[in-house]
């Protein structure tokens, strides 16, 4: 099963770009595609209008039968072993992946995700109980995905 990670705009601060590139390269071997979508600039619109405009961009990237994961600090804390179980289920076509073609994991822009994205999501994950800068959230997510894949494959990267 294909996995797509949707990230808003370009990583900031730029000093984090090499880490993102490294994990994106490692994840490519597992069939993970990392895509940056154009984020909305904060302007004279209300925060909700800005987030909804960004949500419309996200919805255009989704396909029928996607399993949508929204990353939001108000979500359920995701743990490495639970993520590994989900990835294993995606390889085997078991629940909750039955009938799904892709897992799409989306991170919101500077203002977070619109409620419409959270409501459409199959699951909402919290990467941390802390609110993180977007660049840091990206690295946490990508490293966590990589670690979970190594657990599934029995690679020694993850030390229990």
Secondary structure layout plus pairing:
Blueprint: E1 2-8, H1 17-28, E2 32-37, H2 47-61, E3 66-77, H3 80-92, E4 102-107, H4 115-120, E5 123-126, H5 134-152
Parallel strand pairs: 1-2, 1-4, 3-4, 3-5
Helix pairs in contact: 1-5, 3-5
Structural summary, described in words:
The protein has helices at 17-28, 47-61, 80-92, 115-120, 134-152, and strands at residues 2-8, 32-37, 66-77, 102-107, 123-126. With 160 residues, the chain is of the alpha/beta class. It has a single domain, classed as SPOUT methyltransferase, trefoil knot domain (Alpha/beta knot, 3-Layer(aba) Sandwich), CATH 3.40.1280. A 5-stranded parallel β-sheet has the order 2-1-4-3-5. Helix 3 links the parallel strand 3 (66-77) and strand 4. Helix 1 (17-28) packs parallel to helix 5 and helix 3 (80-92) crosses helix 5. It is globular. The chain starts with a strand and ends in an 8-residue tail after the last helix.
Key terms:
5-stranded parallel β-sheet, 5 helices, 160 residues, Alpha/beta knot, globular, 41% helix, alpha/beta, 22% strand
Provide a quick synopsis of the model.
This protein is of the alpha/beta class and 160 residues long. Helices cover 41% and strands 22% of the residues.
């Amino acid at each position: 099963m294909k996995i797509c990670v949707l990230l808003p705009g370009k990583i900031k601060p730029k000093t984090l770009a090499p880490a993102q590139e490294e994990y994106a390269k490692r994840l490519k071997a597992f069939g993970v595609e990392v895509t940056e979508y154009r984020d909305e600039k904060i302007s004279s619109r209300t925060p909700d209008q800005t987030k909804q405009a960004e949500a419309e961009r996200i919805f255009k990237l989704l396909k029928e039968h996607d399993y949508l994961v929204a990353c939001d600090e108000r979500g359920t804390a995701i743990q490495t072993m639970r993520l590994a179980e989900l990835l294993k289920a995606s390889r085997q076509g078991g629940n909750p992946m039955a009938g799904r073609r892709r897992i799409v994991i989306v991170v919101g822009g500077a203002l977070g995700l619109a409620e419409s994205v959270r409501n459409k999501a199959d699951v909402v994950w919290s990467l941390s109980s802390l609110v993180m800068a977007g660049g840091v959230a990206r690295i946490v997510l990508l490293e966590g995905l990589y670690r979970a894949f190594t657990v599934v494959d029995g690679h020694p990267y993850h030390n229990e």
